[in-house]
Amino acid sequence: MAAGPRGRGGGAPAAVRAPSAPEARTPGDGAPTAGPERPGKVPAMASRSTQILEAAARVIARRGVRGLRVEELAAEAGVSTALIYYHFKDRTGVLRQTLEFINDRAERYTTDRDPDAPRLSPREELEETLLLELQDTVEVRENSSVWGELRASAVFDEVLREDLARATLVWVQEVAALLGQVQPMAPASSLAAAAERLTALLEGLSMRWLSGGVRIDHAQELLRSSIDAELDGLRQN
Question: Which domain holds residue 186?
Answer without folding.
Answer: 95-236
